[in-house]
Amino acid sequence: MLEKKGHYGPQVWFVVLISSLLCLVLLFSFDRSFLSGGGRGGNNGVAFFVDNYENSIDTRKPESLPFGRSLNKTIDPAPIDKGSLLKANNTARNREVPNVGLSPPGVIVGDKSDDDSASPTNQSSEHQSIDMGFDRGSCSGRFIYIHDLPGRFNNDLLRKCESLTRGTDVNMCPYMENLGMGPAVADSGGVLLNSSWFRTNQFLLEVIFHNKMKRYECLTNDSSLASAIYVPYYAGLDISQYLWSSNISVRDATAFDLVRWLSGRPEWRRMSGRDYFLVAGRIAWDFRRQSDNPSYWGSKLMFLPQSQNMTMLSVESSVWNNDFAIPYPTYFHPSKGVEVAQWQDRMRKQERKYLFAFVGAPRPELEFTIRGEIINQCLVSNGKCKLLNCSSSTSNCDDPVNVMKVFRSSVFCLQPRGDSYTRRSTFDSILAGCIPVFFHPGTAYVQYVWHLPRDHTKYSVFIPLDEAKKVSIEPILQSIPENEVWAMREEVIRLIPRIVYADPRSKEKNFDDAFEIAIKGVLERIGKVRKAIASGADPSIGFAEQNHQKFDFPMSEPEKQERRR
Ligand SMILES: *[C@@H]1O[C@H](CO)[C@@H](O)[C@H](O)[C@H]1NC(C)=O
Ligand SMILES: *[C@@H]1O[C@H](CO)[C@@H](O)[C@H](O)[C@H]1NC(C)=O
Ligand SMILES: *[C@@H]1O[C@H](CO)[C@@H](O)[C@H](O)[C@H]1NC(C)=O
Ligand SMILES: *[C@@H]1O[C@H](CO)[C@@H](O)[C@H](O)[C@H]1NC(C)=O
Ligand SMILES: *[C@@H]1O[C@H](CO)[C@@H](O)[C@H](O)[C@H]1NC(C)=O
Ligand SMILES: *[C@@H]1O[C@H](CO)[C@@H](O)[C@H](O)[C@H]1NC(C)=O
Ligand SMILES: *[C@@H]1O[C@H](CO)[C@@H](O)[C@H](O)[C@H]1NC(C)=O
Ligand SMILES: *[C@@H]1O[C@H](CO)[C@@H](O)[C@H](O)[C@H]1NC(C)=O
Fold this sequence. Notes:
This protein is α/β, with parallel strands linked by helices and about 575 residues long. The protein has a domain at about 40-105 and about 350-505: Rossmann fold. It is built from 23 helices and ten strands. The protein has helices spanning about 1-35, 50-55, 65-75, 80-85, 90-95, 105-110, 125-130, 135-140, 155-160, 175-180, 205-215, 235-240, 250-265, 265-270, 335-350, 370-380, 400-410, 425-430, 465-470, 475-480, 480-500, 515-535, 555-565, and strands at about 145, 230, 275-285, 310-315, 325, 355-360, 385-390, 410-415, 435-440, 460. Strands 1-2-3-4-5 form a five-stranded parallel β-sheet. Strand 8, helix 18 (about 425-430) and strand 9 (about 435-440) form a beta-alpha-beta unit. One 2-acetamido-2-deoxy-beta-D-glucopyranose binds next to helix 13. One 2-acetamido-2-deoxy-beta-D-glucopyranose binds near residues 375, 379, 389, 391 and 392.
């Protein structure tokens, strides 16, 4: 007995140790599980401020849009998306929904799970503070080196924020506050949470990203250890000063300056820049001018020889392979998972009195959009549709309170393209638990491949443009069965943590946000290139090529089956 007792000592300690570890693990998973919780919302509202909410590229000449030409070849033949249009009851989906509340957000979406081992799930800051011993190990393969660029490429631009407003009516200076998140929303009258909401300008993605990068958990000052090299150039803010210039050498000057600086550094030699990435808060077309004819839009930053060895993340990608789209920044920058869970819960419980909503401005000059039809249909909908007219001086579409009031009260949010394919509004609607309705695959499906589920029927409705011009939208949306609507909304709400950029200052963030998912995507891409180089392959193959398949309409499983029949 005595002898046995003697043995129990260490065993008890061992059990205690294991139990505490288990507790920590449980706490950790519990906290994360909140993120997939759901919510309830408010009511009618308002719209968006055009310059912030829409990409302002009015002066763009259509012939200068490379995508415009590729359009009917690659995108227009999009099949009618019966999967979401007709919404036959889908037993597979019904099976998937019930356990959503239990999965951590990294697992929720499921489509990107090919490499779970690289998931930052295991490496939240909370976990780290508990488990110091694993820190360095967990950074293995994830170290990033930030280039210390001269101020003219980033910080000087923030200082001259008044001059960045060229082409828009908005003074950008106030939006620089709070590390690029903009002024905090002081009082939303109960529409938003009391903290973590900001009047964020969509063009500030590059500043927010840089500030998050500075606090990234696996930074290194030793570039030889780095898996990727981040170039903190504020490409969008910079070009916004010159986009409307008729002098192309003025538009291209900083681009040449940048690549000269980068390729002159010793870090460039290791992989000739193929491990470099930069982030732009404007659409890729702004950096892809294909001709030196001044009537063509944009700079040629991404066509310079050095840039063809680098990767760019931006709010809208092009058909070139070294462009990747990441979400526009929305207004919500939570600092911890419980805030996300709280918001999700509100959006789940929210009463939605409008069948659909549109927040935006008409674009009468653009024949390829159906904003005019949408607005007309909305006006005759007998209150089923809520319109926030962003051209009107009375609706402030820049105010997150106005926008969220409309979106949280609507079941579906229409997302027709404007000047460019994508809209920041897509992410605002996801944030409000409002199911996005797309009319063009270029608006989201072929863009945010790292962040949104591969099967778009799970979280959105697709109505091809031609179809939408002929038929009325209301009966289409009305005919979607209640359980389908519920499942889609649940999926949308579960996407919220993946599409927000958490507050860069937060030390308690314990979920994978849009930033983390983007970093993971970049590291995977560069990792593949590194492997290719190591195996003697030519890394330039496929790296920066024009690739129309990139924008092929992604088919859902039901569609593929339909095709096979
Ligand atoms: C593509 O556009 C061209 C010019 O507008 C037109 O002639 C051609 O028929 C279109 N192709 C398809 C597949 O729509
Ligand atoms: C679809 O689901 C709804 C609600 O569960 C049900 O009432 C309806 O009968 C279903 N329709 C089909 C075709 O299964
Ligand atoms: C973390 O990673 C380790 C090994 O890499 C794995 O055994 C463990 O299950 C992971 N934990 C979580 C919470 O993902
Ligand atoms: C949020 O702020 C409003 C007004 O400042 C206040 O009335 C309300 O109690 C606050 N809510 C919470 C949960 O703190
Ligand atoms: C890198 O160097 C700078 C300046 O010497 C220092 O402030 C910073 O903490 C270092 N960062 C890391 C990750 O070692
Ligand atoms: C464009 O701007 C550059 C630099 O300011 C100037 O040297 C050049 O003459 C201008 N070109 C034209 C066509 O105006
Ligand atoms: C781009 O990378 C290739 C090797 O992949 C290299 O030969 C070429 O010199 C690089 N271009 C520049 C401008 O550094
Ligand atoms: C939207 O506002 C503009 C500017 O006030 C106005 O001209 C237009 O008629 C409005 N559209 C609708 C549908 O109310």
